[in-house]
């Protein structure tokens, strides 16, 4: 069938596209920034349309001549995500009906009956209702915690288990949860194309185990061969306070941790398994919690994590012009440029450049980077804990600590855009060019576009540290390349 995926740069969408291609479907994706897909392995197998779910014209263009729409978009980290998601769903529902689609497939969350919902769950339910009322046959899959390498829920569980031998926990850790493996979510999504036109409803989907979050923490520790975790229950930790703790201890920022935890305040257990009447369970059965964790950890060990929760695009990111581009509107722009010659060949220098961040660090004054990362986490930013998906290879659009890979021209140029909390926009460019007489010219450029007076003050305050941070980075990157060449 002809399938169009909205949200292909996100965690679920990026894994669903190859599943659909393997089943023989033709796939179109609509993304705000097509450049984010330049390095994904299925890039040449899909039709890419640039657009946004809040733009009726680009939505209509993306749906033209398609049959099945996968709607996997959520504006969670934006301030007015409820209003944005409502408007986007209404635009998509109207466009889908006008285009004559045969099916809409949507992934939401399990809705506990008779309880006051968090804004996050309430918004997911509202989007489902809008799509179900579109006039186009719609299936809404409702899932609780998704267990898979790179998912926000799994990362939160993993880091809480691994970094805290003892935990002070709120009451919600004893609520029942029915987690589901990412492979089973993809199984249901991919086979939704087989549903008949009479199916227009929501289905709860979950794995075979019903556990408390405390059970999940302890079982993860056992699977990962960690000592048994000591837990001290307290009645006073609200979801908001819990999210601040998660923000400090795990890579998941509080903008995402808050709605995740607000969902766990409810018991999220499947109320039915009616989907089995339309899509049979996988041949080997649904994946249990322990097996899902083992599979996720195996992928992490093998550096085989195709998508992560941090891959989702943020408005105003890579599609915006760099302030040094000729068509930029102008204004104050600060730059710190460092160039060094090295005898190492360009390929070796590039290997060091592309491996930067994560476990390899930033090649200068680690304590300063660490302190700045903690300050950013406290301010609600990304901090340094997001790490990297693969220790040696990057791709456009992915998160790298508090940066996002905006542009990648291998093996010549890497451009990172800052997602830390600063009063302006910041970029870091690293490049390697062969020298006519041999060796490599390494170039490093930090760019800052200030917003308001605070932005100018910020740059002036940190400028005295640039020689230590940026100068040290240039020296150490070329030094690492030379050492690698010698070895």
Main attributes?
14 helices; Rossmann fold; NAD(P)-bd_dom; Alpha-D-Glucose-1,6-Bisphosphate, Chain A, domain 4; 6-stranded antiparallel sheet; alpha/beta; ComplexI_NDUFA9_subunit; SDR family oxidoreductase; 2 domains
Structural notes for this entry:
The protein has 487 residues and is an alpha/beta fold. The protein has two domains: 2-311, 3-Layer(aba) Sandwich (Rossmann fold); 334-486, START domain (Alpha-D-Glucose-1,6-Bisphosphate, Chain A, domain 4, 2-Layer Sandwich), CATH 3.30.530.20. Helices cover 36% and strands 20% of the residues. The chain is built from 14 helices and 19 strands. It has helices at 11-22, 56-63, 81-99, 119-132, 152-163, 182-190, 213-223, 239-249, 254-264, 289-301, 346-354, 366-378, 452-462, 466-486; strands at residues 2-6, 26-31, 47-50, 68-71, 103-109, 138-143, 146-147, 166-169, 176-177, 180-181, 201-204, 211-212, 230-233, 334-342, 399-400, 403-409, 413-418, 424-434, 440-450. The strands form five sheets. The chain has a seven-stranded parallel β-sheet with strand order 3-2-1-4-5-6-11, with helices on both faces. A six-stranded antiparallel β-sheet has the order 14-19-18-17-16-15. Helix 1 (11-22) packs across helix 6 and helix 5 packs across helix 7 (213-223). The protein starts with a strand and ends with a helix. Mean pLDDT is 85; it is low at 313-321 and 325-330.
What do we call the CATH topology of the largest domain? Rossmann fold
Give the rounded overall mean pLDDT.
Answer: 85
Multimeric state: single chain
- Overall body shape: globular
Number of helices: 14
């Amino acid at each position: 069938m002809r399938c169009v995926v909205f949200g292909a740069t996100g965690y679920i969408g990026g894994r669903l596209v190859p599943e659909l291609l393997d089943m023989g479907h033709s796939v179109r994706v609509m993304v705000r920034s097509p450049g984010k897909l330049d390095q994904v392995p299925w890039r040449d197998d899909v039709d890419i349309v640039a657009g946004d779910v809040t733009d009726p014209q680009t939505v209509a263009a993306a749906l033209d001549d398609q049959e099945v729409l996968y709607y996997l978009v959520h504006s969670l980290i934006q301030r007015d995500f409820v209003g944005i998601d409502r408007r986007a769903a209404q635009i998509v529902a109207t466009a889908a009906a006008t285009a004559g689609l045969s099916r809409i497939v949507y992934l939401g969350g399990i809705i506990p009956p008779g309880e006051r919902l968090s804004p996050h769950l309430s918004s997911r339910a509202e989007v489902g209702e809008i799509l179900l009322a579109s006039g186009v046959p719609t299936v809404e899959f409702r899932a609780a915690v998704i267990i898979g390498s790179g998912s926000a829920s799994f990362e939160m569980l993993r880091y809480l288990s691994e970094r805290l031998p003892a935990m002070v926990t709120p009451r919600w850790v004893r609520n029942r949860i029915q987690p589901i493996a990412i492979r089973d979510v993809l199984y249901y999504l991919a086979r939704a194309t087989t549903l008949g036109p009479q199916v227009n409803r929501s289905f709860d989907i979950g794995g075979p185990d019903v556990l408390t979050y405390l059970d999940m923490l302890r079982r993860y520790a056992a699977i990962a061969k960690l000592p048994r975790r000591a837990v001290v229950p307290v009645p006073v930790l609200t979801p908001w306070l819990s999210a601040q703790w998660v923000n400090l201890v795990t890579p998941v920022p509080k903008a995402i941790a808050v709605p995740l935890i607000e969902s766990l305040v409810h018991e999220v257990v499947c109320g039915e398994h009616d989907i089995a009447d339309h899509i049979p369970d996988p041949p080997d059965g649904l994946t249990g919690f322990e097996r899902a964790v083992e599979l996720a950890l195996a992928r992490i060990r093998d550096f085989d994590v195709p998508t992560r929760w941090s891959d989702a695009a943020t408005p105003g990111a890579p599609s915006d012009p760099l302030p040094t581009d000729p068509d930029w509107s102008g204004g104050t722009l600060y730059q710190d440029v460092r160039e060094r010659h090295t005898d190492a060949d360009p390929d070796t220098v590039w290997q060091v450049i592309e491996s930067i961040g994560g476990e390899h660090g930033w090649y200068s004054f680690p304590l300063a980077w660490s302190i700045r990362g903690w300050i950013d986490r406290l301010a609600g930013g990304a901090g340094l804990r997001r790490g990297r998906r693969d220790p040696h290879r990057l791709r456009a659009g992915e998160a790298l600590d508090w940066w996002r890979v905006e542009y990648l021209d291998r093996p010549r140029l890497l451009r990172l855009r800052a997602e830390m909390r600063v009063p302006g926009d910041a970029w870091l460019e690293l490049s390697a060019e062969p020298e006519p007489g041999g060796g490599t010219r390494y170039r490093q450029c930090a760019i800052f576009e200030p917003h308001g007076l605070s932005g100018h003050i910020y740059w002036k305050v940190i400028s005295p540290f640039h020689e230590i941070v940026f100068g040290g980075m240039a020296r150490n990157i070329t030094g690492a390349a030379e050492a690698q060449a010698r070895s």
